[in-house]
Amino acid sequence: MHIHILGICGTFMGGVAQLAIATGHKVTGCDANVYPPMSDQLRAAGVELIEGFDLSQLALQPDVFVIGNAISRGNPLLEAVLDKGLPYISGPQWLAEQVLHGRWVLGVAGTHGKTTTASMLAWILEDANMQPGFLIGGVPLNFGVSARLGETPFFVIEADEYDTAFCDKRSKFVHYRPRTVVLNNLEFDHADIFADLGAIETQFHHLVRTLPASGLIVSNAAEASLERVLQRGCWTPVERFNTPAGYRVTGDDASGELILHGADGEIGRAIWQLSGEHNRANACAALIAARHVGVPLDKGLEALPASATSNGGWRSVVKWRASRSTTILPTIRRLLPRPSPVCGARSARPAFWRCLNRAPTQ
């Protein structure tokens, strides 16, 4: 099959392109801006890239046009596809039909921490010789690519709540039909498409509805929004973390110590290079999800220190967004020294701390 992808240089659509190449399809694609690092990954994979949306691309005569969610009505190439009645499909739907069908999908959902947690989860499975496929919204440095087909039924995907395409306003993750899903957190985000937090909770419940009774939901017990989602109806076993009654991870940022606890006490310890309560929560979720596919908790914990290897482990690109204050600010408060009482009048540090103290943390 020859597919032509509109909006190919986004992290998700670029990953779809790499997976399509790996499954034997011919892939071409276009975008408004074609530049590294995604352009380098795609060209290395054998994808022909075209800059812009010129109508001459119709002459490629692909079997189907795959439309990224960055492509809106009014785009000249999309309008031509619609006018001529040419076959098209959204990226998430194509992925579900051509790659994910029949596989054990492990989805990582949440307002933040998806890339980090999905990277951890993929690495834990890799360390256990499970050779998973994955599609992640960043480049885990242990793998060097954002997407891989894998050698086994297991497939880890960053399950994004943003909408699917111009023609499908459901969240992307409803297409993936995971058997294991992490619900990491849920806060108001994407104000361009969601009216309020309740609207996002509805989409998360749509995801919950797609899981089988033999699956597993790994949910953050500290998030009231996720509890509301599950209270709407749940037909799948739930394993909660971030609770004294269940699994949780504590640690020390200075030493890098990581301690995994269960309901019956301490399970194990490790030393890693990340810091912050949010990253410890990410690790806990990844460990529980990996256990569902056969990786014992202690074995998964042993994989986490691989972040200390020379290539940087599974750490991926850092993303700063205003909505991330609930995870970023607690770490900043611990790492930065308090302003000295003898700071000069022109120092910005006291004002910086006043802003931190006013910022929301939950």
Give a brief rundown of this model.
This protein has about 350 residues and is α/β, with parallel strands linked by helices.
Helical residue percent band: 25-40%
Number of strands: 17
Mean pLDDT: 87
Describe the strand arrangement of the main beta sheet, using strand numbers: 8-7-9-6-12-13-14
In CATH's first tier, which class of the largest domain applies?
Alpha Beta
What does it look like?
The chain has 362 residues and is of the alpha/beta class. It has three domains: 2-93, NAD(P)-binding Rossmann-like Domain (Rossmann fold), CATH 3.40.50.720; 102-308, Mur-like, catalytic domain (UDP-N-acetylmuramoyl-L-alanine:D-glutamate ligase, 3-Layer(aba) Sandwich), CATH 3.40.1190.10; 322-358, no CATH class. It contains eleven helices and 17 strands. The strands form four sheets. It has a seven-stranded mixed β-sheet with strand order 8-7-9-6-12-13-14, with helices on both faces. A five-stranded parallel β-sheet has the order 3-2-1-4-5, with helices on both faces. The chain has a three-stranded antiparallel β-sheet with strand order 15-16-17. The longest helix has 16 residues, at 277-292.
Write the layout of secondary structure elements.
Layout: E1 2-6, H1 11-22, E2 26-31, H2 38-45, E3 48-51, E4 64-67, H3 76-83, E5 88-90, H4 91-100, E6 104-109, H5 114-127, E7 133-135, E8 147-148, E9 154-158, E10 163-165, E11 168-171, E12 180-183, H6 197-209, E13 216-220, H7 224-231, E14 238-241, E15 248-252, E16 257-262, E17 265-271, H8 277-292, H9 297-303, H10 325-335, H11 349-358
Parallel strand pairs: 1-2, 1-4, 2-3, 4-5, 6-9, 6-12, 7-9, 12-13, 13-14
Antiparallel strand pairs: 7-8, 10-11, 15-16, 16-17
